[in-house]
Amino acid sequence: INHILIDCGQQKLVFPDVGGLELVSTTKVLKDFKDGVVCFVIIAQEQKKDSERQATGISVVEDFADVFPDEILDLPPRREVEFSIDLIPGAGPISVAPYRMAPAELSELKKQIEELLERRFIRPSVSPWELQCYL
């Protein structure tokens, strides 16, 4: 039997240690309902506050959370040395026809690109390997 405490004043459910919980699959609950078993089912989902970081599951990010800013306001500053990787010296990109878009789709893409350029989240590129997208 599960013993979950309901704290009405704090509007919280207090769960005991994991060893005291009985987890029941959806299949078992449906079978019990069909068999006429009286039971109470609570489906709960943890709500994270907006201020909480979403870095769960990535060990490096969790270990060094203080290094990563909450918001990225700008691109990194320009450096003295531009870094590039030549996969095969002198090789160029494969010629592929540009993706065709409906006028409404193209208009929305232009709007989003302009917004990203203004916010300095992206910048123009002169790389021959850049995305083949014609506006």
Automatic annotation (TrEMBL):
SUPFAM superfamilies: DNA/RNA polymerases. This is Cellular nucleic acid-binding protein. InterPro entries: DNA/RNA_pol_sf, RTL1-rel. The gene is Vigan.08G224900.
